[in-house]
Structure formats: C-alpha cells, structure tokens
Amino acid sequence: MTMTAAELTRCEWCGEDPVYRAYHDDEWGVPLHDEHALFEQLCLEGQQAGLSWITVLKKRGHYRKRFHQFKIECVARMPDRSIEARLRDSGLIRNRLKLYAIRKNAQATLNLYESGYTLNSFLWDFVDGTPIDNHFRAQSEVPANSTDSDAMSRELKRSGFCFVGTTICYALMQATGLVNDHLVSCYRHDQ
Fold this sequence. Notes:
With 191 residues, the chain is an all-alpha fold. It is built from nine helices and two strands; from the N terminus they run αααααααβααβ. Strands 1-2 form a two-stranded parallel sheet. α2 (35-48) runs antiparallel to α6. The longest helix is centred in the middle third of the chain and has 19 residues, at 96-114. It is globular and about 50 Å long. The two termini are 19 Å apart.
C-alpha cells in the first residue's frame, strides 16, 4: 500500500503549510553542489537571521527576481543605488545590512574563486565531502550549531562573508545536505 503525501511522517518543523512541506520534501537536506544554488542558499539563510525560515521561503522568488537570479557576478557588481532601491521593496526583508550582505557575499565568493576555491569545495570541505548522517529522534535533539558550523563561520568571516554566524552556517549545512538532520521517523531520513 502506497502512502499519499499527506499521510507521510515528516520532521515536525515543516508543519502543515504546503510551501514548507514542499521545501522539506524536495529540497531540505538534499546534497547541493551547484555554485549558484549554494550562493543563493547562503544569502537567504543570512536574510533569515531573527526571522522564521518560512518568511524567507515565501519571499524567495522575489529575491531571485531582484538579485539577478543570484548570479554571483551580477550581484557582485550591483551599485549602492540598486540596493538602496530594494530597501523600498516590500517583497524583500527591508534590512539595510542584510541586503548589502548579499552583494558583499557575492564579492567574497569571487575572491574565493581568485584563491582557487569554489563555494562548493569551500563548504563541503567542512564535512570532508561527505554528508554527516545524524540519527535524531526528536526535534529537541537537533542542535543549533556544531563544531563544523563554528569552523565554517570563522572561515567564511575570515574570507569576507557576512551574516554567517554559526547558527546560520548550521542551517545552511542542514538545507544543503552537508548534514542529514531529518528525524529518523521522517520518511526523508533514509532517502
């Protein structure tokens, strides 16, 4: 007997919201190696600081539109006036530091390239290229950070990135599949 999507057991955090469920089912925890997708996720995790992820997730399409589909080279060249205009855009989180951070992180990514790294290699080095497979039984067991996210945060900051604290880095690791934090009861854990 095949279960319907509504009958599947999921991680508690995604609740009943169809946008959240689709994100959980199709994206969260799937190992990601695409440069632009990693850059987008890094930037969006920074936009989340102090907010819920669903707030950012529901604005993601508009962020893509207003930030050149997160094409790193285009974002890195955005003039101040373009970012200032985005501060008046209600489809974005209108926080000056967060919006300027997107451009700064694009510039830092280009600097990584000049140093011989890709964002993919830089991030995946923190887990030696292999996802960490956790086996948490309850949401309360899932940490907000780890020694790996602490190290990632330090190195990203040292490399010129911003809005990359250890909690943001751990959320990035979860979202991009560097760690598998689906609960063992979740149908996605073993996938």
